[in-house]
Amino acid sequence: MGLALMAVLPSYQHQGIGSQLVHEENPNTPLLPFSINPAVRILVSTMKHLSLLTAIGMLLSLSGISCEIRSNPDARSKLEVSGSLDILSAGTGSTDGQTARGRPADARPGGVEQAGEAEMKALAQAYPNRIEEIAFRNEDWALRIGDTWYFWAKGRLLPEELRLQWEEYASYRFYSYSLDLPPLPVLDEESKLRLRERLERAEDNPPRRSEAFLADLYRSATRGKTEARIGTVELVGFDVRVHEQIVEPLRKVNRALEALAEIDPGVQRFVAGLNGVAGYNWREIAGTRSRSYHSYGVAIDLTPKSFGGRHTYWRWALPHSDEWYAIPYEQRWMVPLQIVKIFEEQGFVWGGKWFYFDTMHFEYRPEILILAKASGDRR
Ligand SMILES: [Zn+2]
């Protein structure tokens, strides 16, 4: 890790704000850190997940990504993907001309799915109370909230007046999210180098997402407007402050969790080991210029009494391991997968499945899960 990056690391260590840990997730949190550009090779290696890898390979093939699945003599399966490391990008570079999900942006109307079409449809399905319509307008997919149209703009979700400046913004990540626990990535030397460069560059020029869409979606453009929408909900015995939009989903999570804890001693132990649940917190994401999902009140952290010496957050793991992204799951503080599933069923993704892992963190991204299920159905 470069000196510049190392120099800023201590500022991310366990800063307490009240009882809340600042551990913020990356805004651009792909499950795997690549979009599609035949420059860098990422090796995903596993002993156990051949069928999953086969499915991923098929999906990638369908998306026009070159990939191959090879078996070697020791029965290790490898998925080799050619892709650029599209991580922490500040809105310029490798995603240009590509969607985050690998379809060419210049696909022509008629038969072929347009860039952003699936994502915009998933958004409309995920937030029917806010998104009133979607349409293909002025050469791009757009969705309407009230009187404002937001354009796909290569994943930036920009209002009309910002459309042409899309390069100044980081994209909203519509990463492919695995409904199973994904195999850990194994990066080759070139990919490691690029990752290091990307992280260092991001420290100098942190990514900035346009907040216009999210602020409108959640009617939370300012701190005051946000806090007017914050309510309290009980989750596993703790009161947590969240946006009104996720109060009902969290109530359902809570009911399902309590029912599961009654019959599953492991789940009961996990819940008993929690120290709190953190929700709304007005702040930017560490190392970025974007508002955290916590600052909209649509993310929560389950914080344990003790991590038991295990890793929970990629930024905290960085100083301990050059290959922090490959730290085995056994060495990470994990949320039981039955609990993860309960959250997913209510529209929450788990940060424990991200490349930039954040195992305490859940955030409300029903559109990501709609896309994940659609991918699963196509298999
Ligand atoms: Zn969090």
Layout of strands and helices, then pairs:
Elements: H1 3-8, E1 15-17, E2 20-22, E3 34-35, E4 41-46, H2 50-62, E5 67-71, E6 77-82, E7 84-85, H3 117-126, E8 133-137, E9 140-145, E10 148-151, E11 158-159, E12 185-187, H4 189-204, H5 212-217, H6 223-228, E13 230-235, E14 238-243, H7 247-263, H8 265-272, E15 274-278, E16 299-304, H9 314-317, H10 337-345, E17 348-350, E18 361-364, H11 366-378
Antiparallel strand pairs: 1-2, 3-7, 4-6, 4-12, 5-6, 8-9, 9-10, 10-11, 13-14, 15-16, 16-18, 17-18
Helix pairs in contact: 3-11, 7-8, 7-10
The structure holds zinc ion.
Q: Output the helix-strand order.
A: HEEEEHEEEHEEEEEHHHEEHHEEHHEEH
CATH-level-2 architecture of the largest domain: 2-Layer Sandwich
CATH class wording of the largest domain: Alpha Beta
Distance between the termini: 39 Å
Q: From the alpha-carbon coordinates, what is the Rg to the nearest angstrom? A: 20 Å
Oligomeric state of the chains in view: single chain
Strand order of the largest sheet: 5-6-4-12
Number of β-strand runs? 18
Bound molecule types: zinc ion
> Would you identify the regions where 5 or more consecutive residues have pLDDT less than 50?
1-22, 24-110
Mean pLDDT comes to 76
Relative helix content: 25-40%
β content, as a range?
15-25%
- What structural class results from the helix and strand content? alpha+beta
Discrete helix count: 11
